[in-house]
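Sample entry was shown:
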Amino acid sequence: MLPQVPRSRMYVAAAVAAVVLVSVAVVLIVRNPSGPANAGSDSTVAAAPSSTATPSKKASSDSESEDDEAEKGSDGNRALGLKSVATTSPGVTARLARIDSVQATASLPGEIGGPALAITVKVKNQTGKKLDLALGVVNAYYGPERTPAVSVASDGEVPFPASVADGESAKGVYVFQIPEQARPVRVELDLGNGADVVVFKGRPQR
């Protein structure tokens, strides 16, 4: 005949088993508090990012602002390409007809000989009247710091004529001492008499 287990021991064993079951349930709840209903949202958060990167709008706007600053002339006008045609005032257009690499010879005080650019500027008058060019000025700069280029007026420079008739064009040749590896080159044209200052910028072929 099997020995009888006291009822007090049976109660103790049952209580211990209940405590164990409650502990297991608590552990499961803590590990997954949202339950199966939120399983889909958890997998979405853990998804790997796309391999294709999209530039942020802030990065794009920063780079654009830097480009705008680099493209502006001393008067705030946006620069044009070296081959562009600019309108300086109603009926008046200007362009860089030629940019030639030359070896300039200095003969006047302050001039510097050596590699230079001979820049031919062409102005067309369609205003209906004679256009005064006596106040026309051409300046050049080079490099990212916009270093002013020294004019070599004594070697091949041909300034604008005093005026150009309606329907006609006029040219001026301006020589500037610019290092061979200098990039980019900027040319500012001011025809005076209230005309807009136009800026050409680019990398001329040597």
Notes: Residues 7-31 form the longest helix (25 residues).
